Amino acid sequence: MVEHWDAVVVGSGPNGLAAAIELARNDCRVLLLEARDAIGGGMRTRELTLPGFLHDECSAIHPMGVLSPYLRQLPLRDHGLDWVPFSASVAHPLDDGPAPLLVRSLDATAERLGSDGPRWRRLMEPFLRYPHDLLEDLLGPLRPLPKRPIQMARFGWHAWQPATRFARRNFETREARALFAGCAGHSVLPLETWLTSALGLIFSITAHVADWPCARGGSESIARAMGAYFESLGGRIEVGRPVHSMDDLPEARAVLFDLAPRPFVEIVGAAIPPRYRARLLRYRYGPGTFKVDWALSGPIPWKDPAVGQASTVHVGGTLEEIAASERDAWNGRHHPNPYLILCQQSHADSTRAPSGQHTGYAYCHVPSGSTEDRTAAIEAQIERFAPGFRDCVLARHVTTPGDFEALNPNYVGGAVTGGAADLSQLFTRPVARLNPYTTPNPKLFLCSASTPPGGGVHGMCGYYAARAALRRLR
């Protein structure tokens, strides 16, 4: 007997799961297909180094997960998700002196920024009046009327600038400039690029709204909770079901793809017009990612012990150093002292490592598809701010850009954020369309991080794609 579905979702990352949930919540019969043996996309946790040490394959710290306008309204705690907060969201060690810390309290953050403390407070305070409305306006496609027009206008006034220009115009101390640059580095763009201040502002603001948490037991706990909730709504999940072509899909009125443009084109082929197909294949992905996970005998021995309080550590020194590192990755070069995003989730989540021991990881941005081993450069950069770090390493696991793409075809060239979010692709992901989640084929939709608002564990791409599909289904 041939089963007919209202919708089939291909891929079970945070956006595929969010799309499936939203469709099921609206009384659709939904089938979710996942090529690997478990759902999750990048939300997977494994013993990559030694028994008893749990490492997240991709990201571990999820400010956008806990603050997502969509995910925060779902009953995921009832299905086993437990967010674990830290006492600081970000630390930014420098060669001498105390490290600036980004914590929930504006006053406590300002205290460690010296003369720039009042400036930081004046910049952030207006955005903290209606922060959830701001995030709802930002985490989605362009809309004619935001929920808070004045707040959005204020944000836009700052956000259009390059992060280097914004930091130098607004701050005088190396501490404040470095703290902002570390947040802006999540844009995976040269910090001289227009709009890179937007990411710096978003990440700074979120840290004053909620502590950046990890999921207890690993990021796969998010996927498990979302999957369990989806099934409670009557949805079906089938793992080990790769989709290589349209012939692999069951009958459905709509198909949503949690895929980047290139693997999407490989599957759908002639089901979309040649001109649209060619535009998708011109989509740019940006730099790749080189990541090292460690099993550690103890906590990282930071020169400033306060750095150990943070879930995320931006390792890279000054604004100028971080900007140089990100510029090199974009221009096809490997910087000798790379900017790192380091996470130390076992400091708050004791399930990650045996008693008294720890896990940690750091990654840097590298040219797309790079094959250069950056392990020594990454560990030297950490040693710079935490002498004796290498002596704590029990075992390490390396993930190259090629490894990332092999784990998940969405990570083209090792780009884990769904593609470059520069001015030409920020609002027109993956191509310029009135509704970016639709395609010229009325049955086919895109719901991946290659659609607005882009990368991160927030599910908003999936939510908006599901709303587009529901309008067609009705």
Number of strands: 16
| Overall pLDDT metric | 97
Evaluate the radius of gyration. 21 Å
| Count of discrete alpha- or pi-helical segments spanning 4 or more residues | 17
Low-confidence stretches: none
Helix/strand/pairing category: alpha/beta
Report the CATH C-level class of the largest domain: Alpha Beta
Task: Tell the overall outline.
Answer: globular
Strand order of the largest sheet: 7-6-12-13-14-11-15
- State the major sheet: 7 strands, mixed
Give a quick precis of the structure.
The chain has 474 residues and is an alpha/beta fold. It has helices at 14-25, 63-67, 106-111, 117-124, 131-138, 149-159, 163-170, 174-184, 196-209, 220-232, 261-268, 274-281, 319-330, 375-385, 401-407, 423-426, 460-473; strands at 4-10, 30-34, 45-46, 55-56, 83-84, 88-91, 101-102, 214-215, 236-239, 251-257, 288-296, 310-315, 340-343, 358-366, 393-399, 444-446. The strands form four sheets. The protein has a seven-stranded mixed beta sheet with strand order 7-6-12-13-14-11-15. Strands 9-2-1-10-16 form a five-stranded parallel beta sheet, with helices on one face.
Notable traits:
single chain, 16 strands, FAD/NAD(P)-binding domain, 5-stranded parallel sheet, 34% helix, Polyamine Oxidase, Chain A, domain 2, 474 residues, 16% strand, alpha/beta, 7-stranded mixed sheet
